[in-house]
Amino acid sequence: MQIGSCWFDINSKTLSNLGNDTSWKMPAAEFSVLEILVLQRGQVLSREELLASMPEGQQELAQLILAIERVRFYLGAEHAELLETVDKQGYLLHSAPKSKIRTTSSIPFGSISAKHYFIFIALLLGLLWVINSLFVPAVKINSVREQVIISHSSKLSFYPVFSSEEVRMNHAIQIQSLIQTIETCRQVPWEHLFLSISTEDNLISMVLKRGVSAGVEVKNLKIVPLDADWHFIDESWLVKVGVCGE
Amino acid sequence: MVNRYRHLFCNGKKFWILLSSLIAIVGLCAALHLLFVPEDNVSLSCSADLYSKKPNRDLSLGLEIETRGELVTLKYRFFKSGIEKNSMILSGKVSKLDLTSMSLKLELDSGQVISNLAQKGLSKHMNTIVDASRLAITNGTPLTLGIHLLELDEKNNYAIIQFTPDDGIWGCDLKIHKLPF
C-alpha cells in the first residue's frame, strides 16, 4: 500500500522507501500503529484506539508519540504531513498529500508578507477616506405637502405651513380667498409659494421660490394683516408686492 | 522533531492578528470621527420685505442664524429705506437636533438690542419681538425656539425654515462650513 513515496507491506511488516530504495523492518509498536492507520485511512483515530492496537507492555502515550514520530521520519520531510495530528482528537493518515502551497489560513501571514499586509491596510484606510470626502451627497429635503394653484398662464405649487391644525382651520377661509385671488392673476412669475401665519404677532409669512439660470431665487414677504379677512389682498396688491406679474 | 502544537499556535496567532487589525481599524475610524469630523458650522442669511396695507413702504427685515458647534446666534434686523434701524442679537445653544423631523431646538439665554441713535424708538414689529424675547430671558429661563427644515438644497445653497412655536417661515441663503478631514 502506497504511503507517499513509500510502500507499506503489511505481510512483511516492512516500510520501503521507493525513492532511496531502502526498507525498514518495522518494530511491533510502529507497525501496529501504521497498520491501523492504513486500514482506516482518511479517518481520525483517537489516541486510545491507537494505544489499544499496540502490543501489550507498550501501550503508553510516550511510546505512541515516539512511534508516530519515527514513522514520520521514515516517510521523509516531504510526506511526513500525510500523518496528521488532529488537535484533541488523535491522528489521521491522509490518502494524498495536501497542497504544497501554504494558504493564508494556515499560517499567520500566509502567502503575503507583513509589509504587504500593512500596505494593504493603509490602502484600505486611504480608500475609506477618499470615499467619505468625495462622495458625500448634497442633502435635499422637501417635507411639506403640496397644493397646486392654476392661474391664467402658469401653475404655482402652494404649501400652507401650520404646526397647529387649529390655526389652519381658523384661517381656512382667508387662505381659500388668497388662492382664488392668485388664480385670477394674469401671470405668476413664481413656481412655489410657502405660507404661514405667526401666531404671536399675527404676521403672514410668504416664501416665494423659482428657478433661475443661476440656480434658485427665494423671496420673503412679511405681511401685517389689517383686517381679519385679508380683504386688502387683491390682485393689484399681489402685483405690487411681486407675487403676481403685471 | 515535529512541533505538534505548531498548527494550533499558527491558527490562534492568525486569528488574534486579524481580529486586532480589525479592531484597530474600527477604533481609528471612530476616534478620527469623534475628534476631527466636526459638527458643520451653518449660516443662514434671510431677508424679507415687510408689507402692510400700503405696500410701498420701504421696510425690510433681516435674519441671520449662525451655528458653531452647539453654539447658536440669531440676529434679527429691521431696516427702513435700506438703513438698519434696530437689531436684536440672541445667543444660546442648540439643545437638541432631531434628524427624523429635521428640526433643531434652540435655547437662547442672552440677548442684546442695538438701536440706531437717530431712531427714536423701536418699530412696533421690533417691539413685539424684543418684548417676547426679554420676557423669556429675564425670567431666568432660556427662550426656547425650534427651527424646522421645510426645504434644504445644499446644491443651490438655500433652505426654507419654519420657526416654532410661532410658525414664522423664512427662505434663506445657506452656507455650510465643512472643515477638511
TrEMBL record, chain A:
The chain crosses the membrane at residues 117-139. Residues 1-95 form the OmpR/PhoB-type domain. This is Helix-turn-helix domain-containing protein. Residues 1-95 bind DNA. InterPro entries: OmpR/PhoB-type_DNA-bd, Sig_transdc_resp-reg_C-effctor, WH-like_DNA-bd_sf. Gene3D superfamilies: Winged helix-like DNA-binding domain superfamily/Winged helix DNA-binding domain. It holds the Pfam family Trans_reg_C. Coiled coil: none annotated. The keyword Membrane applies. Keywords: DNA-binding, Membrane, Transmembrane, Transmembrane helix.
